[in-house]
Structures are given as C-alpha cells and as structure tokens.
Amino acid sequence: MDSLKDLEKYVDDAVEVFMAKMKEMQGQSVNMGLWAQLFAFDVIGEVTFSKRFGFMDVGQDDGSFAAIEGALQSAAWIGQVPSLYWVHDFLMPVLGNHLGINARHGSLRKFAAQEVANRRDRGSDHQDILDKLFEMQKEKPNEMNDMAVLSMATSNIFAGSDTTAISTRSIIYYLLKNPKYKRKLLDEIDTQKREGKLSTPITLEQTKHMPYLQACMYEALRCHPAVGMSLPRVTPPGGIEVDNRFIPEGVCMDNISATA
To answer: Whole-prediction pTM value?
Structure first.
C-alpha cells in the first residue's frame, strides 16, 4: 500500500471525472454497478499506464467487461480442478475453445500488449506501476522478461479492475440498502467537512481518521468479498505450521477471502 501512495494524486483525475459524470446524471436512473466498473477500469489505466482508458468519458467499455466476466466464470470452477484446463487445452484444436479464461491470453492480453506498447512510446512524466515493472526488469532481466511484464500488466487490468469494481459496488449496495447507516456515514463526512478536515477529493490519509467510513468499507467487504471463490494452495516440501497445527507437505488447502 505504501508504494501505491505515490500514485494517489494521479487517481484524483479519475475521481473528478466520475463526480462530474454523476452530477450530469443527477435526477436520472443510473446503473451504479456499471459506473463503478467504468471508474475502476479508468483508475487502473491511470496507475498502471499513466493514462485513463477513457471509459467514463463515453459511458461504456470496449467489450473488455464481457471478456473479464467470461474469464472469471470459467476460472471459478476450473480453478478448483486445474487439471481440466490442460485437458481442455489439449483437446481445443478438435473441440474448440469453451473456456472464457482463455480470454486472459487472448483479447485481454492483446489489449494489455497495446497499452504497454503505447506507454513505452509516449513515456510518462511520473512513475506508474509499469515503471516499477521496467525497473525490476533491469535489475532481474533473466527473471522479468518482456512476457513477464506483459503478464503482470494483463493481470492488473484483468483482476485489478474487477476486484476494485466489486468492492466499490458492495460498499454502495449495502449503504443504499441500509439508509440509517448511510445517514450516519454522511453525518461523519459532513462533520469533518465543516471542521475543515477534508479536502476535495478526500485523501487516503484523511480517510484513516474517519472510523465510520472505515467500518463501512470493511463490513461491505466482509459481506461480499471481491474474490468469492476459494484460493487453493499446496503446502510446501516439509509441511507447514498454521495456527499451531502442523500440516504435511502436498496437502491442498483452501482459504475463502470472506473468512480471512
């Protein structure tokens, strides 16, 4: 988190565009789920490539959301039985592609490759996540080749935007579903605003001194975590001790983020 604080001021542009769009649509019925994802995608573009993707400007995506949705749907079950992925990969020339997760290596990867190339060409007047990856590539060229950089950029777009959107949606949903808690949060914001403790946009440091806002965010993530499926891990050679209990090597362990 500390390494990302340097990028905060560059996210402010996306926040300002989002707030301007919300003001334009005041009094209208707004799909906040869609706008949360448009916002998240543009933020990821800014922090990764020093440039928003422009989805909020036009109020729609370029087909990336459907590709991500398809990839996550198949990842949800293929992640539990990974051997099926390789069976599918082997039979794909005969049966065709029926796994949306392959979009991560298709349209989403092409999108990321184009953005990486564009970022190399135009440069940037400040450091972004891609800069950090380029620096690591210089330090460890054998471990971090161009394909590794591309894979990490793809993952940032693929997973970063979706988890950010899900988390934002969850917070908005539970606040709207519980008006008295929404009112309490607004009271905290209004009080701190009157006391001159908040800027526009509000900074990360300022939110640390807003206990009710923090409680709302963590409770929303507990009720609806960004990753709803289990994340299996295999214990290393020699086994591992977890919570004072020894687990032998080679055991597949699951952890659902909602219980973490």
So the answer is: 0.82
187, amino acid identity = D
Instruction: Report d(CA 80, CA 38) in Å as an integer.
Output: 29
CA torsion through residues 72, 73, 79, 84, sign:
negative
Q: Report CA Rg, the chain.
A: 21
Write the single-letter amino acid at 77.
W
Which pLDDT tens digit goes with each residue over 39-64? 999 999 999 999 899 999 999 998 88
What is the rounded CA–CA span in Å between residue 248 and residue 230? 20
CA angle, 144 as apex, 138 and 147 as ends, to 5°?
120
Element (H, E) at 233: strand 233-234
For the stretch 91-119, what's the b/e string if a residue is b when 16 or more beta carbons lie within 10 angstroms of its beta carbon? eeeeeeeebbbbbbeebbbebbeebbeeb
Q: How many CB atoms lie within 10 A of CB 90?
A: 10
Strand partners, 252: 234
Please give the span between the terminal C-alpha atoms of the chain, in angstroms, as a whole number. Answer: 18
CA-closest candidate to residue 49, choices 147, 163, 161: 161
